[in-house]
Amino acid sequence: MPIGEEFAALKVKKYYLWGDKSTPDKTRKFIESNPLPNHCFQGSGHWPMIDQPTRFYQFVSELIAL
After folding, report:
1. Residue 17 — φ and ψ, nearest 5°?
2. How far apart, in whole angstroms, are the C-alpha atoms of residue 49 and residue 45?
3. What is the tens place of the pLDDT at every residue in 1-56?
């Protein structure tokens, strides 16, 4: 089973956080074709928590507060 399908099949609440500078086309297509909650950090690479810490942790804080 491809890793994206394994992630989608997890029986837990999940949210896929990603950066547009490093996400492969295959992953982008998977995100578009599957109803997974996700958020793209524009201008970020693989680690948005390092590239954009203020935006990243603000977003995560808001998710946790829901």
Report:
1. -105, 130
2. 10
3. 677 888 888 899 889 999 999 999 999 999 999 888 999 999 999 999 999 999 99
pTM to 2 decimal places: 0.82
- The structure tokens 């829901």 sit at 66
Considering only CA atoms, which of 49, 37, 39, 36 is closest in space to residue 18?
39
Q: How many CA atoms lie within 13 A of 63 on its CB side?
A: 14
Q: Which of 24, 25, 26, 7 is nearest to 16 (CA)?
A: 7
Domain locations along the chain: 3-65
Residue owning tokens 């793209």: 40
Is residue 40 within a helix (H) or strand (E), and if so which, with residue range? strand 38-41
For the stretch 17-30, pLDDT in tens is: 999 999 999 999 99
